[in-house]
Amino acid sequence: MILVDDAGAFLPAINHSPWDGLTLADFVMPFFLFIVGVALALAYKRVPNKLEATRKAILRALKLFCVGLVLQGGFFHGVRSLTFGIDMEKIRLMGILQRIAIAYIVTALCEIWLKGDDDVDSGFDLLKRNRYQLFIGLIVMITYMGFLYGTYVPDWEYRISVPGSTEKSFFVKCSVRGDTGPGCNAVGMIDRKILGIQHLYGRPVYARSKQCSINSPQNGPLRPDAPSWCQAPFDPEGLLSSVMAIVTCLIGLQYGHKHKERIMKWLIPSFSMLILAFSLDFFGMHMNKPLYTVSYALATAGAAGLLFAGIYALVDMYGHRRPTAVMEWMGTHALMIYVLIACNILPIFIHGFYWREPKNNLLRLIGVGA
């Protein structure tokens, strides 16, 4: 994501897809959720005290959620002006860390309380032992699809601040059910109703779509005939889409369970999920990261499973650990790296040392941004 944030504007192929479709950046979040699930299977391999484990899991999730509120709610917003603070009326309530916290706590509780004790000698035994976890994942997926395709989305209106004036109103005509376009989907409607539109992400990814941006797939001036929803806030880590993120974490949890012939038991479901995902996409249930559609969840989980199996074979089976040393270090410090760089802590620190004026900072001294 650091690469995407810094180079995505120049290389659209690695930036987030404006709506339907997959790019390199769209794999980052589900890959992280997948490996969180794998890690939980290892962390809760033995649980001597389920109540204590539950208490610690809830506390850890709350900490992660609160860190996300500070970092992604808008506290560190003025990198170059060295300003900070949050307007509580406009704080962004959801975000990447908040989504991870939600998926983490649900998956952790499933592993603590719903893991069977059956011996595993075959793939069927594995399914039998984890049947309650799989059932939870199925219920979550059905619930998501019910809301996405069954919720009626009425017409709605929003206001934004426009340079040269105070506020401008936009009317979005919907009156539709099951739409998965940017303006009239149930994911955005639920966030607007529950969280409030003022608490959503203010730079929607669909602003780079062909309908909105002259420079699509990059940001640019609005097209003269741009739809009314192009400037509407939309949270890519909203409530309903975070429900499907739980499924990705639960899939990773199954990969983390110890069993015989693990490579084949990873490869078969990975290829199966990819085939199902592309089939769903072909028949109209498109892969979409902002909505976190079922096809998107299956495609990214399948890809994560293949990558996981490949790294396991490379490192654990054939002993080639040295080539992955850098990735291992980044993995063990992922949250710290994300906080320091992707959330502007390190840039603010660098900009914070200056001579007389903020523009005379360390970057200017070494010739960056001069």
TrEMBL record:
Pfam family, one: HGSNAT_cat
Transmembrane among keywords: yes
Residues spanning the membrane: 27-45, 57-76, 96-114, 134-152, 238-255, 267-287, 293-315, 335-355
Keywords: Membrane, Transmembrane, Transmembrane helix
Residues of the Heparan-alpha-glucosaminide N-acetyltransferase catalytic domain: 24-109
Keyword Membrane: yes
InterPro entries: HGSNAT_cat
PANTHER family with a match to the protein in the record: LD22376P
Protein name: Heparan-alpha-glucosaminide N-acetyltransferase catalytic domain-containing protein
Organism name: Oryza barthii
